[in-house]
Amino acid sequence: MKKTIYTYFFNEFIRYFTIVIFALAAITWTVQAVNLLDLVIEDGHAFKIYFLYSSLTLVKIITKLFPFSFLIATILTISKFEKDNELIVLWTSGLNKIHIVNLVFRISLIVMVIQLILSSLINPTSLNYARSLVKSSQLQFVPSLLVEKQFNDTVKGLTIFVDEKEENGEYKNIFIRDDGKILTSISNQASTIFAKTGYISKNEKNLVLLNGNIQKSETDGTINIISFEKTSINLSGISTKTISEPKIQEISSFEILRCMSLQFYNKDTSSCRYGKNYSDTKIEINKRFGMPFFIPLISLVCCFLLSSRKDKKFSYYNKYIYFFVGFVILVASEISVRYSGFSWNHTVFYYLFPILLIPVFYFLLLKTFKYENLGI
After folding, report:
1. Residue-wise over 132-162: b if at least 16 C-beta within 10 A, else e?
2. Where are the domains of the chain?
3. Which of 34-38, 97-101, 170-174, 194-198 has the lowest mean pLDDT?
């Protein structure tokens, strides 16, 4: 019977947890995906890159939502059992409440391990791969470079300005400054191009310029001016200046720990691929390895719901009270992790906060239920 009860409780929790985390992730991902449209609209990347990049960031969203989803799912599971009077049946059958507490705590340990794997291994790998897609991607949409009355420097070393765009798709007063020798078909040196009018070719890969001139900087320092009636510039295949270097959250945990050890012993960190800020390094590591420890603490907070009785005044509000307490703990963990990199004392406090509170909360629960039937 005990095994059947545990299985039933676990299945209900998994059902709520799956619904909550995917519902929240879907909403968050949709909002983020809209913001990432700049990859196509402004940076000119292909839609394929956009969809792959935004899809790979879903792992980061799910990882971030794990503790909060666990809090909601646990509250909903216990509330469901209480609402359907299933808890009363369990207690009258001889099952002590501390056994349910132990079950919830064991479930929290499983969730904690999963989040540890996600945050320390899967998430950095996924984000790093997403960054590599953008880094290796080339410009696919030339029209995204031509924005009316705006200097567009999406491509590093290349600045484009268009004074006016007609309804027929024709551009007027076009200015192009090539400092990075991007337009090799025009010049191998830095150059400036002016054109009275222009338009994009049907394949959307070439910019056709009419009635203008090209000012080229020669190696001897002189300026060579070439006038033209019509010329075509191939803008497809060039890379944008979207940040292509990996951020610290995209670096593997092993690499960060290695660099932390080099920083700690004041050794050469030139082989590290990210900023040398020791504080930021510790904060990132604490996010990956410290945040999951708050999940077992949250589970014990939710277990205080088991002590609620319908006949008590205001018992209906208990689930909101314990949800609020759990939410405050999660907010405190997010705030404290941002200060955990200031010093080793802050780091130690960050880890000790959940570790010390877990036995305290468990003792309070044990004391609360010690007069319950110890049956099963």
Report:
1. ebbeebebbbbebbbbeeeebbbbeebbbbb
2. 2-137+278-368, 142-234
3. 34-38
